[in-house]
Amino acid sequence: MFEAIILGILQGLTEFLPVSSSAHLIITPWFFKWEGVVNTLSFDVALHFGTLLALLTYFRKDWIEIIKGSPKKDAMMWKLLVGTIPAGVIGVLFHDWIAQNRSPYVIAFTLCLVSIFMFMSEKNYKEDQRTGLESINYKNAIFIGIAQAFALIPGVSRSGITIIAGLTKGLKRAEAARFSFLLGTPAVAGASLLEAKNLMGEESIEMDIFIAGIVVAAITGYFAIKYLILFLQKYSLRPFAYYRFLLAFVIILSIWISR
After folding, report:
1. Which residues does 142 contact at the CB level (< 8 Å), separation at least 6?
2. Smallest Cα–Cα separation from 169: which of 123, 131, 207?
C-alpha cells in the first residue's frame, strides 16, 4: 500500500510535468527493488486512469465547450480526434513490445534525447510572437499527435514531447501545455480501457492497492496540471530539461554501482 501511494504521487506529478511518468514508475521500483503488482504495466495504466480523472475534472468546462462546438466542420473535437489516432494505432499494434521494453538503459537515453529537443524548441522563443489554440489546424493536430505516439517509449514523456511539438508549431508555452493535456485525454482513456479489459481475465487483483494508487494520482495530478500551466506562463522548459539530464545520470550511475 505504501508503495502504491508513493507511485500514485509520482504518477500525478510526472504525468503532467514533462519529465516522463513511465520513467519514474519503472525506475522507482527498480531502484528500491519493489516487486509484485506495483512493478507491472497494468498498475502503471491504472495510475494513468487516476490522472485521466484529474484531466476530466480540471478541463471539464473546456470539454463541455468542445462538445458543444463539435457540429462545426473545423471544431476542436475533430482536431483532437485526428491527433489521437497515431498514438492509438501504435499503442494497439505495439502493446506487447512496449510492455517488454522497460529497460533503464532505454529510459536514460530517451530522457537525454528529449531534453535536447526541449533546448532546441526554446531557442529564440518570444512570447509575443506566439499564438493560442485558435491557430491549431488539422495539419498541426496530426503533427502533435504523431509526437504523442513517440511517448509510448518509456522516458520520452507524453506531455514533454507534445509541448515541444506545440512550440515547434508556434504555440505559446501554456497553450501548448493546454492542447497537450486535451489531446492526451482520449489517449489515456483508451489505454485505461484497453488495460481494464485485459485485467478482467485475471483471477485475482489486489483492488485496494489499485484504488489507492488511482485516488492519489488523481488528486496529485489535478494540482500538477494547474501549477504547470501557471509556471509555463512565465518560465521555460529548461528546468525540466536539466532535471531529465540529472535523472539520466542517476540511472546510469546506479547501474554502474550495482555492477
Report:
1. 82, 83, 86
2. 131
Backbone CA torsion sign across 122, 79, 94, 185: positive
Smallest Cα–Cα separation from 182: which of 96, 69, 99? 69
pLDDT over 60 at 171, yes or no? yes
- Angstrom distance (rounded) from CA 175 to CA 181: 10
Give the range of the structural domain holding residue 200, as residue numbers without chain letter.
Answer: 2-258
Residue 133 DSSP symbol = G
Task: Identify the pLDDT of residue 5.
Answer: 92
What mean pLDDT, rounded, does the chain reach? 88
Radius of gyration of the chain (CA): 18
> What's the number of domains the chain is made of?
1
The β-bridge partners of 131 are 171
What DSSP state is assigned to residue 36? S
Worst-scoring range by mean pLDDT, 67-76, 95-104, 109-118, 179-188? 95-104
What is this structure's pTM? 0.89
